[in-house]
Every structure is written in structure tokens, then in C-alpha cells.
Amino acid sequence: MRSVPELVAMKARGEKIAMLTAYDAPSARIAQAAGVDLLLVGDSLGMVVLGYPTTLSVTLEEMLHHTRAVRRGAPDVFTVMDLPFGWAHRPWSEVLAASVRAIQEGGAHAVKLEGGEEIAETVARLTAAGIPVMGHLGLRPQQVYRLGGYRMQGREEREAEELLRAARALEDAGAFALVLELVPEALARRISQALRIPTIGIGAGRAVDGQVLVWHDLLGIGERRPRFARAYLDLEREIRAAVAAYVADVRSGAFPDREHVPLPEDG
Ligand SMILES: Nc1nc(=O)c2c([nH]1)NC[C@@H]1CN(c3ccc(C(=O)N[C@@H](CCC(=O)O)C(=O)O)cc3)CN21
Ligand SMILES: CC(C)C(=O)C(=O)O
Ligand SMILES: [Mg+2]
Predict the structure, then answer these.
(1) What is the pTM assigned to this prediction?
(2) Atom 8 of ligand 2, nearest CA residue
(3) Is 257 found in the same domain as 156?
(4) Euclidean distance between CA atoms 53 and 62, whole angstroms
(5) Sign of CA dihedral 164, 157, 145, 205
(6) Which of 23, 74, 135, 169 is most buried by its number of CB atoms within 10 A?
(7) Which Pfam families does the annotation name (predicted)?
(8) Residues 120 and 252 grouped into a single domain
(9) Domain containing 218 — which CATH number?
(10) Residue 81, SS3?
């Protein structure tokens, strides 16, 4: 299992970090077998698994429930749990209590919070308590109502400087890594070069220290996926064909065949 110091050392050595989201035990088991460095139980759960239009509906209880499943499937992978909408901006003692639940009840090793300088004090308090914190800057999907959509952030120089300042504040507060979502590659490079802690990009180009991708986007499951995501399979199509074949076989009587009829003497 990767450790926090090891992840920081990977950046120093120029070794890329491969992070993937997971929401249940079987996918986490497969991700572990495939050798991912980090798992993220993302609040994208709400959109890709629970069928909501945004991440805002996801509750702490739901995050804990799915984090437990992921940990059962991938006992040997360092796992980060997203704190859901609203939590990062509560008084730090409440954020600490939620993060303790992530670790004690969810089995997570770290938490991720969307936010900049306004949550730096909270990040410092969690870090002091021994909880590794991953930051998340750029497109913050929990801000979608304010932003009006899932759009690129940090295109204006003034905005870019604000993001660089926020990244430094999170590192100074003790964050061990930082997700950069949907920002220009040049800005992601600037931030990555300014920090000692690794940056994990999603739609942030190549000049970052690692990548994170949503499980369903990687596999090609879902009606829409962000342009920045690469589908390594067209699994939705394959699954649909398999299910259609099953339905046809039940209707025709081709399933079950002799091979799939249990014999009484087998118990
Ligand atoms: N399937 C999925 N993948 C994700 O990466 C993801 C989620 N869901 N849900 C939670 C957040 C929301 N994210 C999103 C969602 C949509 C876009 C998107 O459609 N972006 C447009 C570009 C919009 C623009 O720049 O104007 C795209 O086509 O990529 C991006 C990130 C990233 N996260
Ligand atoms: C896309 C990643 C970074 C995330 O926050 C999530 O999956 O919720
Ligand atoms: Mg998230």
C-alpha cells in the first residue's frame, strides 16, 4: 500500500501516480489487482451510481456505506473518501468529526475536501489530528449551482493567480496532495511546479504528477462522459448486448441448457 511520504517521494522522483474512483467492492478488487496507486471514493457516486444530476445530493452516510464496500474489495490500496457537499465549510471540529467517521467507520486512509484558502485552517486542524487531507481545486463540482455548469476554471490570469495562491495555502496547511480538475494545462503546470506535494489532474493536461479518472468513464459506461476522459472499453455496449442475449435466450428456452441445470445428486 502507498503511504503519504511515498506519494510525495514519487513526485520528487518524477513517477506518475495513477488514481481511480471506486464505489463498490468488485470494482475496487479489480482496481487493486490492476495495480492502481490510489482509490478515490468520489462523491461522483451521486451521478455515476445513484442517478442524481449532480453530486450535491450525496450524504455522509452514503459516502461511508460505499467506502466500506470499497475497502472490503481493496484491502491493500490507500483509499481517499470525498467529504460530500457542505461538509468542508462547517466549523473545523465538525469537519474533524466527519473525517474521523471516514476513517473509523468507512475505513478510509484520507479525506478529500473541495475548497481553497477558506478551508486552509480546517485542513491544518485535520492534518494535526493525523488525518491526511487531499485538496481539490479548479472545477469543484460541489459549486455547480453557483458556476452554472461543469466548465473549465482558471482561464483568466486573475483567476489563475487565485488558484495558485489557494494551492500554496493548502500545501502550507498540510495537504498531502491536490486534485486539479478542468484547468488549462499551463496553469496545472505552474501549480505543479510551485508545489512539493503531488498534483493529481483530471482534465488538467499532462504536466501534473498523477491522474484520476472516474471508473465508469474509463470503462465506457454512461450516457455522457467529460471530453477529457478516455474510455478504454465500450463496456456499456457490451453489457447491453449480453443482457439482450440473456433476454432472448430466456424467451427462446436456450437458457438454461443442460449444463446449467443443477442435478439433485450435486446437493
Ligand atoms: N462520469 C463522471 N465523470 C466525471 O469526471 C465527473 C462526474 N461524472 N461527476 C462528478 C464530476 C463532475 N465532472 C464533470 C462533469 C461534466 C463535465 C463536462 O461535461 N465538461 C464538458 C466541458 C464543459 C466546458 O468546458 O464548457 C466536457 O465536454 O468535457 C466535466 C466534469 C467531473 N466529475
Ligand atoms: C472526479 C474526482 C476528482 C472526484 O472528486 C469525484 O469522483 O467525486
Ligand atoms: Mg468529488
Answers:
(1) 0.96
(2) 42
(3) no
(4) 16
(5) negative
(6) 135
(7) Pantoate_transf (PF02548)
(8) no
(9) 3.20.20.60
(10) strand
Is 114 marked within a binding site?
A: yes
What Å distances lie between residue 137 and 1, 42, 99, 196, 252, CA to CA? 26, 14, 19, 16, 54
Per-residue tens of pLDDT for the chain, all 267 residues: 999 999 999 999 999 999 999 999 999 999 999 999 999 999 999 999 999 999 999 999 999 999 999 999 999 999 999 999 999 999 999 999 999 999 999 999 999 999 999 999 999 999 999 999 999 999 999 999 999 999 999 999 999 999 999 999 999 999 999 999 999 999 999 999 999 999 999 999 999 999 999 999 999 999 889 999 999 999 999 999 999 999 999 999 999 998 889 998 876
Residues 218 and 246 in one domain: no
Domain range for 112: 4-233
Q: Is the CB of 216 under 6 A from ligand 1?
A: yes
* β partners of residue 112: 82, 134
* Site residues for ligand 2, CB cut-off 6 Å: 21, 40, 42-44, 82, 136, 179, 181, 202, 212, 214
Q: Is 32 in the pocket of ligand 1 (CB under 6 A)?
A: no
Same domain, yes or no: 241 and 183: no
44 labeled binding residue: yes
Which residue minimizes the CA distance to atom 5 of ligand 2? 42
Are 240 and 112 within one domain?
Answer: no
The answer, yes or no, to whether any atom of ligand 1 lies below 6 A from the CB of 44, is yes
Distance 49 CA to ligand 2 centre (A): 13
Residues 218 and 267 placed together within one structural domain of the fold: no
CA of 226 to the centre of ligand 1 (A): 4
Enumerate helices (H) and strands (E) in the chain, giving the number of each: 11, 8
214 and 265 inside one domain: no
Active site residues: 181
- How far, in Å, is the centroid of ligand 3 from the Cα of 43? 4
Atom of ligand 2 nearest to the CA of 181: 3
The 8-class DSSP code of residue 217 comes to H
